[in-house]
């Protein structure tokens, strides 16, 4: 009973912290946009800016309160935000929440599948490598992990397109479906065909982090008294890896996977750009390049929420791994 | 023996990297200024003995453009890493002064870490209007939090070290303790921290430039070269994409290995 109350308290304090961090994200991102040398009226008008008279510009500025002080504008924006109104995206001519909703649905398939793949493959490779430190297999796997950790994500995507799409012709070069076909008419199989290359490239980068982390855990386990005891009972290395390693290292790998959602999302921006995949990442770049301020702010807040929830889950998993941490937090 | 081995390895790495860097930085003198020189009779040539890494769509030598790009990446990455380390050290030190400041710094760290780096970079590039200086500042501003967190934890654990307690008992001022005890202890960590930030900074600069919001597209930056290569990818001009990226990978990998070796040695 007492434990329940403490758990609720911990959860409540975490949620308050989450709200505080999100408020700060809103302030920082809004402040950055205010700093921009790009004139908000020009950004709003886009290519039509040459056809608008100074009187009309003044009207636009008045309509959107561009002349008010930054604090007043922030207040307006925040109150709109709290009522669920994220604003209007002028490059997509849709409300920001609609753009984010549509785009995220497509990105979610990419992000989710790449996340799962990097977790499973990364964990398996880490266990294999760490079970026998210094073996040829370990050298190969950790060498691979070191190299991918230093590889630019978009370059890996380019190489993949070059090899599998241009030379081998196995996969399409772009997009989430065939060009000129309506989204709802694309079959599941075609979708998967378009997804497989971006997903694999995105996963390759996440695999490295999880592999190295799991490998370090496994090496520590193999040098521990648990392993010594099992060796004395006649267990082999693979026995120990299978019986103790899986339990010992799986939760940390899962925690790390939740804690690195930000990197995953950052990678997806680049990968979506290379594969012309019409997801949230591509919309982010478009918003940045074409000064769509409401969309840029909306995406920044949305991803901050996404990453923070990931961190929250990771933080909540820690006490499960190590009960001593639960004691410390109380 | 166990202590000597990593140090020897680190020395080897430093030597190797220094040779590469001297070659890289001195390349304008021995490689000439061919990075911008166009040869219209030799456009999109594959690698051969006369064009080592091939040429681009304007007949410019890819090897000299790649070298120029790596040089640019190196300087931008180094400046961003140093600036980021300086910010991290300053804010970590500020955090030790009072609990309010500490709470503020921690909140700032949490805030910046909760937005994906690349989105924050896009926002910063938007706010600062692009260009080399803007990229350096943007990369520095996004990369300090993880190092600041480590330095802050280190400073907090040092506060209870015996020699600090003795110094306090002897009536030394806070500033004296900070300058004479705490900061010298942090210098190796700052060096390693800067070196660990360095490859990240290079990769993020290249990513920003590739997306079109980083360095000026008229400069031969690696991101610009790769964005150009994207347009010729489906035509099978593989060398345009492969070599600049490979050069970047090798540079990032060697700096990263150096940082890891150095951390082990210190």
Mean pLDDT of chain B: 85
Quaternary structure state of the chains depicted: heterodimer
CATH architecture of chain B: Orthogonal Bundle
Cα-to-Cα separation, first versus last residue of chain B:
15 Å
Return the domain count of chain B: 1
Structural class of chain B: mainly alpha
Indicate the CATH topology of chain B. MetI-like fold
- Helix/strand order of chain A: HHHHEEHHHHHHHHHH
Number of helices of chain A: 14
State the helicity of chain B in percent bands.
Answer: over 70%
What is the ordering of alpha helices and beta strands of chain B?
HHHHHHHHH
By CATH, the topology of the largest domain in chain A is: MetI-like fold
Strand order of the largest sheet of chain A: 1-2
> If you compute it from the alpha carbons, what radius of gyration of chain A comes out, rounded to the nearest whole angstrom?
24 Å
Question: Can you put this structure into words, describing what you see?
Answer:
The complex is a heterodimer of chains A (330) and B (266). By secondary structure, chain A is mainly alpha-helical. Chain A folds into two domains: 2-94, no CATH class; 99-329, MetI-like fold, CATH 1.10.3720.10. Chain A has helices spanning 2-35, 40-45, 54-63, 70-82, 96-131, 136-149, 153-167, 188-222, 225-232, 237-259, 261-274, 280-289, 293-321, 323-329; strands at 88-89, 94-95. In chain A, a hairpin with a 4-residue loop joins strand 1 and strand 2 (94-95). In chain A, helix 8 (188-222) crosses helix 10. The model of chain A has no long low-confidence stretch (mean pLDDT 84). Helices cover 77% and strands 0% of the residues of chain B. Chain B has helices at residues 4-31, 62-97, 99-114, 117-128, 132-158, 162-169, 174-211, 222-232, 238-265. In chain B, helix 2 runs antiparallel to helix 3. Chain B starts with a helix and ends with a helix. Classes of the chains: A mainly alpha (330), B mainly alpha (266). Chains A and B meet through helix 1, helix 6, helix 7, helix 11 and helix 12 of A and helix 3, helix 4, helix 7, helix 8 and helix 9 of B. Chain B: This is ABC transporter permease. Chain B: InterPro entries: BP-dependent_transpt_permease, MetI-like, MetI-like_sf. Chain B: It is a multi-pass membrane protein. Chain B: Belongs to the binding-protein-dependent transport system permease family.
